[in-house]
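Progress against Task 2.4 (sequence-to-structure conversion) is shown through the following example record, which the project officer requested during the mid-term review.
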Amino acid sequence: MDTQDNLTGAQSREPTSQADFSIRDFLREREAVLVHFSTPQTSRPELIFPNDLRTAMGLVGEALCFSTIQVGDVGPHQQADMNPEDANAGGSIGILVDVDGADCVTAVGPGDGGAHIDPATGQLVSAGSPPTPENCARSIDNRVTANEWSVKNYQVVGIFVFLPVLVRQAFAEDVVVEDLIDHDLAFAHFPDLRIFSVNKGRFMEYDRQRRLWSEITYADILPAGRPDDRVVVDGKVPPGRD
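Structure tokens generated for the chain above:
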């Protein structure tokens, strides 16, 4: 085999950019976490907090709407002079997840993709784009408010919150409104999960016993390697496991 044949053979074995693309690595490079929020707008009005998030935790095989969150993002009720619809998230509190595998993300978009539940199939229908490297980058770079990723087969890592916490609550059988809830009461619904947030350009984690927030890194939340390879000590991934 001559040099040209060797070159041609090597080129034919090279993976395409899409085949070689890892969404998990992309999110790590951008230091973006995926969060499914408890929102005022829902296709299941009977599901109020915390049952909406508890239900989402059990629907890992079905695609749900998530948003990418970075340290500079703003929640819907953090700035008094801001319209909640202009925030980088559709809600104050949600589940933060990890993904592993090309089939976990089915669609991405820089804004509200008009996702809805098909009444005939019960499945999420999204108007987003395929999760190519270009589309994933565009979904973050071109977003103005909250973006939308359709995600399934995820692993729940913890709870993410933008303070103050406002969620849908029932005050009577036919009265359901979004109202303020004490954050410790909100966290108490998920006693076995870590609590994360962002503040002043840093990721933060909440210590339930001390009731204090501490600065952490992205790698403390989502270390390198496959999700199943994590080493967990006392319910936490030790710092520096990246």
